[in-house]
Design goal:
The chain is built from 16 helices and 18 strands. By secondary structure, the chain is an alpha+beta fold. It has 3 domains: 263 residues, no CATH class; 138 residues, Protein Transport Mog1p, Chain A (3-Layer(aba) Sandwich); 53 residues, Membrane-bound Lytic Murein Transglycosylase D, Chain A (Roll). Strand 1 and strand 2 form a beta hairpin. It is globular, with a radius of gyration of 28 Å.
Length: 478
Amino acid sequence: MFPKTFRFSSTILLTLTLTACATNPTGGVNFVTMSEKRELDMGKEEHGKLLKTSPVYHNDKLQALVDKVGKRLVAVSDRPGIEYHFTVIDSADINAFALPGGYIYVNRGLLDYLTSESQLAAVMGHEIGHVTARHAVQQVAAQQTSNVLSKALVFTTGISSLGDTANLFGGALISGYGRDMELQADGLGAKYLTKAGYDPKAMVEVITVLKSEEDFTRKSGKKAPAYHGLFATHPSNDVRLQEAVAKSGDVKAVETIRVDPQEFRTATAGLQVGPSVQALPGSQGRNRYYQTLLNYTMVLPDGWKTAETTTTMTATPPTGTDASLGGSLKVEAQRLQRSIEPREFVRDELKIADLQQAEALSQYGLDGYTGFNPATGQRVAVIYYSMRAYVFTGTAGTDAMKNAELEAIKSFRPIARNEAPYADPLKISWIQADGRMTYASLAKQSRLPEFPEDTLRLMNGDYPAGEPAAGKWIKIVK
């Protein structure tokens, strides 16, 4: 007969097993302890937390492409009945990840290394596979079981042998869900690719590109996190990966699609390379605007977009929100013709006799003056910098937006010397190879600060020794 303590622990495990088995949407039975509703609620909660620390990359064309590819894959997935959300994160890290309940994320840094819509679909198909297979939910169940058994062992034996497990989501987003789950996600992703009309070989193709980047990072001594789930062996030699992808060959496409390569090139042209200004410490990094010609910078409210000329910049709130009632904030540079106080400039040059709620401005070594024009009710400000008067006009209609405009004005300052990567960021352009160019010659013209030749090869899938083939569209960095 088993000892009493063992019988007690076994009873707990048996009870959990009988009450928490559920059919997985992708087939088979899994041990889970979470309802679908709780999974969806958890995903929503974690999504909100994530966006507080991981800023969104604002690019309408790129977001439209990501949404299109994501919806196409979801429609043929094993779990099309829940609502999915696709977000591009403004991070240089080469990563993509998923949260429970249909929240899929692709980092800007990963997109720098993709060369086609099919490769983008492969990345997203893999992450959708994690959601359809409920990998996060399974890990929650495993974590909860471990905690229960640990407490049972402490209660019955006085010995704690299991302890607390690591944070589920933090660990999964960094290192993946383990080899078996990552392989399953690859297999599911390849199946979804095929059913959606993409070439499932893109799954191996994109992992090969990312594996090459990981190998280069290790050899160059750089420290950067790799995309989770990559294998120790090269993808072309990984038998289990090849088998997982090969199974998709038995699947028939739901529809035949025509992928236009130009659409991917258009969506990724201008894609930023390197560090994000939004990742700067503190809230002052959010939506910071740089005017490199006049050498000034300021922080605009989240989501505001800008339009500029040589001497002006106009910022406007996003459309489709309450903020759209807030009007705009315009900045105009004027040459200072004579030495007068900012308050006098408002009176004599702007022809506003007396501002209401006026106050002097003194920020970052600059002097200015601001208040409301009694004739129009608009915020007016002037700040002196480098023999110019910068005139601000705000048309906010609500108190909240008026405060936001004033905060933006008070953030105005010269660009610091160490802000070059943020003020004039590196961006991707596409060119067609003429058969004579080499990555060595392109590297000499690139602004990439480190290993430009190898980086260009990696970005175009030609690492370690390939050269641009005549007629091939390749990415360069300006």
